[in-house]
Amino acid sequence: MTHDHALRANGPLAWPTGFRGYTGHGGLRDAGDDISIVASDRPATSAAVFTRSLFAGPAVLLSRRHAAGRTLRAVTTLAQNANVATGRRGEENAAEVVRRVAEILGIPEGDVLIGSTGVIGRPLPMSTILPHFDRTAERGLAAFTAAPQDVARAMMTTDTRPKTASRTVGQARIVAVAKGVGMLEPDMATMLAYVFTDAEVSPADLDAALRGAVDRTFNCLSVDTDTSTSDTVAVIANGAAGPVDPVLFADALADLCLDLTLQLASDGEGATKLLRVTVGGARDRAQAKRIAKSVVNSPLVKTAVHGADPNWGRVLMAIGKNTDETDIVPGRVTVKFGDIAVYPEEPEAATLAELVDVMRRDEVDIAVSLGVGEGEATVYGCDLTADYVRVNADYTT
User: Which residue has the higher pLDDT, 71 or 191?
Assistant: First the structure.
């Protein structure tokens, strides 16, 4: 497995063999591209996971049905509008977008996945979207000249930068695009992340690899404890580069998803720091993840990290509020910030000064051992800043 840094040296990151991308302005935002399509020029196998929100949007509901066939070969994304809580009209609009994209590509509608992201409760502006697709249809595949960075940029809402990642396995390449910096507390999937590969992978292996990767990366990410109505993660494999070892492919996919997870966490709305919390010595991985999430999601821990305030007691608070975890005994717990132990031995003044320096870093690591068993989990998040409040207080005004 290798990273594709060389592919960026003389130009933008390239798609795997057989994939092409498109971006354009469909009137969802005032200016800039807000519609994107990525498609394979040949049949493909696919796997996808979606939000479990009770208010999942029409894009998710439609895409779940299409993904069940495991033959997806194209993804279209509408930015700036989630098309959620829009009733029958929203369902019809999502279906019409998929129909238009399928016509442009000359493929079955059931092979198209749709993502929609942005404000909840507003109908899609079909009066500008449909003429956009008419113009795109006239150009046909000649319009598909967008690189992965272009697609990632067109998907953005409050993101400050596009997010892409790539890996190589044997002769095959894996390239991904993602967006999402707020309303991120994943449950089954998170934000929008699409992975494209020219590896030949069986549907069963592809599904297992995706679910394993999501469980240990995207589902370990939290910016603000809020689960989106539109979360979608999908992988499309068209086999153009031939078969690969499924184990090596799964490892590469997990590594790529971790790369995207760290990008998403560090670009959390208003964030200035990446926060990584590892809990070990737990009864099992599930307990470790619950405690780690309790720490990374604590507003008091997040604000202390933002201000480099060595108030390490907030970590104990975040652990201790899990009152159902009766096998956690304070006397067996240890806490570190970086390499600096802060509990159970009370830090001296000099140690606290060192702790301030650790907390001023762009990446802050907190390690907890529960002293219960051998379970371990790492979760990812960010600090909480006044800018997060500003972004979300003024989101629609």
Answer: 71
Tally of structural domains, the chain? 2
Same domain for 142 and 252, yes or no, is yes
* Residues 235 and 356 placed together within one structural domain of the fold: no
Domain with 217, as residue range(s), is: 2-266
pLDDT at 358: 95
- 26 and 78 Cβ atoms separated by less than 8 Å: yes
Q: How far apart are CA 317 and CA 300, in angstroms?
A: 9
What is the set of active-site residues? 190
Query: 3-state DSSP call for residue 358?
Result: helix
Q: What is the pLDDT of residue 180?
A: 83
Where is average pLDDT lowest: 23-32, 206-215, 265-274? 265-274
Average pLDDT over residues 135-147: 96
Q: Looking at the structure, do residues 236 and 278 belong to the same domain, yes or no?
A: no
Beta strands in 157-264 (DSSP E): 163-169, 172-179, 192-197, 232-237
> What Rg do the C-alpha atoms of the chain give, in angstroms?
22
Contact 167, 255 (CB under 8 A): yes
Q: What order of strands is seen across the sheet that includes strand 363-369? A: 340-343, 334-337, 363-369, 274-282, 375-382
Query: Which one of 204, 239, 266 terminates a domain?
Result: 266
pTM above the 0.85 mark?
Answer: yes
